[in-house]
Amino acid sequence: MAFIYDFLHGDKRRKPLPPKKKEELPYMKEGITYKEWHDRAKGRHKWRNRRWAFLIFINLLFVISFTFDMGVLEGSLSGSRLLGLYLMDPFNSLQELTIGATHNYIPQLTTNFWTGFVTILVFYWIVGGRAFCSWVCPYHFFAELGEKVHDYWVKKRKVKEKTYDITVKYVFWAGFLLLALLTGELVFENLNPVGILSRSIIYGPGLALLWVILLLAYEVFGIKRFWCRYVCPIGVTYSFVGELSPINIKFELDKCGHCRDCQDVCLVPHELWFVKRGAATREVHYTGGDCTKCGLCIDACPGNALSYGLRDSDKILG
Amino acid sequence: MAANEGKFNRRQFLKASAAAVVSLAAVGSVAYWLKDSRSIRDRGLLRPPGAIAEDEFLFACIKCGLCVQICPVRAIKLADWNDGLAYGTPYIDANVQACDFSCDSIQCAETCPTSALHFPVFREAGEKAVAALEAKYNHKLPPDVNPFKVQIYAMKRAYKLGVAKVNADQCLAVHGKGYKGPLTHHRAKLRPPGKDERVYTDQIMVDRKICDLCAVYCPLQEDAIVMKDRGDGTMIPQVLDGCVGCGVCQMVCPTEPPAIVVEPAEL
Predict the structure, then answer these.
(1) Residue at B4 is within a domain
(2) B53 inside 8 A of chain A by CB
(3) Using CA atoms, how far apart are residues A284 and A256, in angstroms rounded to an integer?
(4) Distance between CA B26 and CA B23 in Å, rounded?
(5) For B72-90, what is each residue's pLDDT tens digit?
(6) Is A260 in the B-facing interface, judged by CB distances under 8 Å?
(7) Domain range enclosing A306
(8) Contact between residue A142 and residue A216 where contact means Cβ atoms under 8 Å apart
(9) Does residue A123 form part of some domain?
């Protein structure tokens, strides 16, 4: 276990580099004030706009395929077929395999199921695990909007900000698999806002949508990004897949002014642990499995210290 | 400031975990209760072709909706929360749109990635029929014999959605009554027996002296249903062993509620 932890989080355990001296900060180097430097990122939404456009496009593609009877992207986010190629929700598949193992059902699963399962794992390993969350998941989209309202309420002191230990999501992940094993039912799928929302958008809303609305309300007036941060086992599955993704968010220490705006906009701020003054242990860092590759931090960074990059490309290419 | 910067706090973790375990236990108990009281909860949904036994179907179906999407007459719908653990699983509402046999390849079962709709049954039935046909002609099929038609017919005979049941009290023919008007009052799709094209049912005008629509529009015709003369000028539909429960009879039945209803195979 320690070996795995070191392999994945070894950078965190290294001795931090000495904190930057004042004259090493990017705005000092340029000879401008902090405010001038900081205002550069104001109103910049390049990656957010691209991401929202892509997310809406993907979900709309499902709707268009169904409404106009075109075989482009069929099914729903629980399981789909893109131009004939099957894609399976990885956590749904894991539950199916868990139940299948005890009910002797695994031999019945079709080749399409296996190709769909493997394709999704390989694809999301390449593009970075939880990229699904911010670039595809419709619940994320609404939760992201809800987060804005939540932040407003907190600012107005109507809601008190509360956080939990994010490690609890692993308990939910294992727990939902255990429930599948014990009950022999896809229990999580009855509560899965991703599937419910996806099916509601494509095939029309139903009672189950009330649950999604309730969850969103809880995130707005209760705990910020409750489901995505602390519960969603689909996100956890993708975070395992994306732990060592080649495509990642790259951090360059020399461009960082330690304003920490990136952590303020981030869904999973612990992935940006290295932006705190005196925390970085290397000149270049990459985010880990929880990072959704949403690009909000890239937009927010006045010094352009954060960017999409290939993991360790600098090491490999020398 | 930023939530949880990656420092592991045992106390916080244990507190959150306890909450997680409690909520998981609650969810699990509800699932168990729903599973146990399935006889009350399960409304006897009419499953699409090839559906495996209901107990297995409920976990095998991953609620993806691919079968809904591929059905050319849009007969398949997804169940809602009020159907308990059947939420998100496909069913057919034969009152609105029956499975009319016009797809000619049973794609809904073929597309199912987890075999909740089990396609091999149909494939084998089709292959067996074609093999028998070829054997009959000594492996030299005459040009006027279309093996595809034989194959698809055999595949469809391998369906078992349910069986049609007649409610004699309600049936127009039993009362010696006829029916004149559109085949259905709502718009549905149907390929009438012997025809190649689908039509809209609300555009077909029918005029029967004694109502026999269920038998006239049954895709399997006299293999599945015949009108039996009762001797006094009235008739009664008689469902035969060949009935596969496609639900066309239920869809075209003029009475409200329909005098002929498909009972799901599972019940």
Answers:
(1) no
(2) no
(3) 11
(4) 5
(5) 999 999 999 888 888 999 9
(6) yes
(7) 22-46+245-316
(8) yes
(9) yes
Q: How many CB atoms lie within 10 A of CB A317?
A: 7
Residue A128's H or E segment, with its range, is none
B213 close to B220: Cβ distance less than 8 angstroms:
no
- Measured on CA atoms in the order A48, A50, A51, A57, is the torsion positive or negative? positive
**Residue B3: pLDDT over 50:** no
**Which residues, at least 6 apart from B106, have a Cβ–Cβ distance to it below 8 Å?**
B49, B50, B119, B122, B155, B156, B159
Q: Report percent pLDDT > 90 for chain B.
A: 70
Say whether both B252 and B169 belong to one domain.
yes
| Residue B33 placed within a domain | no
Q: How far apart are CA B100 and CA B122, in angstroms?
A: 16
The predicted-structure confidence for B103-142, as pLDDT tens digits, reads as follows 888 999 999 999 999 999 999 999 999 999 999 998 888 8
- Tell me the whole-structure pTM to 2 decimals: 0.92
Put simply, whether A135 touches B (Cβ < 8 Å) is: no
- What does DSSP assign to residue A189? G
- Nearest Cβ partner for A86 among B19, B60, B113: B113
Q: Number of folded domains in chain B?
A: 2
Q: Are A99 and A91 in contact (CB under 8 A)?
A: no
In the structure encoding, which two tokens stand for residue A7, read together? 């392999």
As for how many domains chain A has, the answer is 2
Cα B162 to Cα A301, B51, B242, B249: the distances in Å are 62, 11, 11, 13
Phi-psi region of A178 (alpha: psi -120 to 50; beta: other; left: phi over 0): alpha
Dihedrals φ, ψ of B181, to 5°? 145, -170
Q: A217-256: string of b/e by CB count within 10 Å (b at 16+)?
A: eebbeebbbbbbbbbbbbbbbbbebbbbbebbbbbbbeeb
> pLDDT-based confidence at A317, cuts 50/70/90?
low
CA angle, A33 as apex, A29 and A37 as ends, to 5°?
80
Please report whether residue A310 resides in a domain: yes
Contact yes or no for B81 and A206 at CB 8 A = yes
Min Cα separation B20/chain A (Å): 6
A199 touches chain B (CB under 8 A): yes
Does B60 fall in a domain? no
Contacts of B87 in chain A (CB under 8 A): 189-190, 208
Mean pLDDT of chain B: 90
A-chain residues within 8 Å CB-CB of B112?
Answer: 110
* Cα separation, A191 vs A112, whole angstroms: 25
| Cβ within 8 Å, pair A260-B24 | no
* Domain span at B155: 119-159
Of A165, A189, A206, nearest to B9 by CB-CB distance is A165
Report yes or no on B217 lying in a domain.
Answer: yes
